[in-house]
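Notebook, bench 3.
Goal today: get a predicted structure for Ferredoxin from Methylocystis iwaonis so we can plan the truncation constructs. The sequence was checked against the plasmid map this morning, with no discrepancies at the termini. Length recorded as 447 residues. Pasting the sequence as submitted so the record is complete.
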Amino acid sequence: MREGSLEAPTRLPLDWENPDFYDEAKLDAEMRRIFDICHGCRRCFNLCDSFPRLFDLVDESANGELDTVDSKDFKKVVDACTLCDMCFLTKCPYVPPHEFNLDFPHLLLRYRAVEAKKNGVGAADRALTETDRNGKWATLISGAVNWATRRGSPMRGLEEKVAGIDPNAELPKYASQTLEARAKANPPARDEAAPAKARKVALYATCYGDYNDTSIGVAALAVLAKNGVETKVVYPGCCGMPKLEQGLLDEVADGARKVAAALAPYIDEGYDIVAPVPSCALMLKFEWPLILPNDASVKRLADATFDLSEYVVDIAKKEGLAEGMAPVEGGVAFHMSCHSRAQNFGQKGAELLRLIPQADVAVVERCSGHGGAWGYKKGNFETAMKVGKPAMRQLDTAGKKHVVSECPLAGIHIEQGIETLAGDKPKPERVSHPIVLMARAYGVASE
Ligand code: SF4
Ligand code: SF4
């Protein structure tokens, strides 16, 4: 729920195909209009590092007002934004339908789109956006890649120099076999003992779920099969969130059209599309229709897509879950990720965990600070740790045996933060997603 407004926020389509969108003078005028409202409001002062940077620029300017801030300094504000959407969704009373029509994250996204069109994206940032290309080769040589990218590896100096990756940032590992290959080798079989459901699920693997951490997809397939749901793994390509972060809107649109076309036959056959990573669910459900508002297949895909936690909780509410779960001992500290919150469906991950018998769940709803690949970058990692510290501290002091976020990258970042905060004290075990604990409760997990 947002502060100070009773109306639900309405996000307007991104006008990126209009030449005015890339007009620098018009962009500057719009930034000054919005930044001036923010300067007078300041509700978002502690959400991230973008707002403190903006308010410092104003406070340290010649007359303490925005008109004496140099436009070239706006980049500092833009650079600190992780597109978490929390200012738009949880704080701002001036978002549409309010007449101020204020969408801070999309304003900063426009700035990045203008920069990308004018100057291109640097080679290192560009390489990080190519998640499918990277994932395909990295899974083939995952042992070597994981060795080279672990903290303390002698290769991290080179990665810092060439790719601008902070040597202290914990990076995601690669799997030796993709989720698609695992599912092909071991096709998910519906539990014959469970009453057959009318539901069929096409699990949209996501780049992270396909190439990096397959335990989430494996657990999802096992839980759905246990509950009588027919499942398939599908993965026509990345949702494009890393490209969105770089302002590459035309490439995000191309990816959206391609994935929507590939998933259309599944929707025709009655499959629900389920995405296990909240950022990817957010892209399919909300961002793609704002980028391609007149594309019928993108709209149809958005309507057919569910976040994984949302979907399992929906089964529980409408049809009930299969029996047979045992308690998971030790309790869970659950981090509600920003892109779960941005889907505006309540605390679905916590609801899922509370379906496990005797669940002891502590919920923390604060940004982890990681911001995807943004948080690995040199110059951002320290900020990412600083922004995430309150969430990390609360998750640590909850004193549970497990810590979990629906956002797997937030989970890795939180684990690293807790490691630093907790020192020699015992630390909670990081679990990749709440569904993994549910699979353990059913005794069907094979991680
Ligand atoms: S989207 Fe998130 S990171 Fe960006 S300005 Fe808003 S709160 Fe800050
Ligand atoms: S984004 Fe909205 S709530 Fe946040 S500082 Fe600006 S005007 Fe205030």
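The CA atoms of residues 139 and 294 lie 37 Å apart. The beta strands are 200-204, 230-234, 272-275, 305-307, 332-335, 361-364, 402-405, 429-431.
Flagging this for group meeting.
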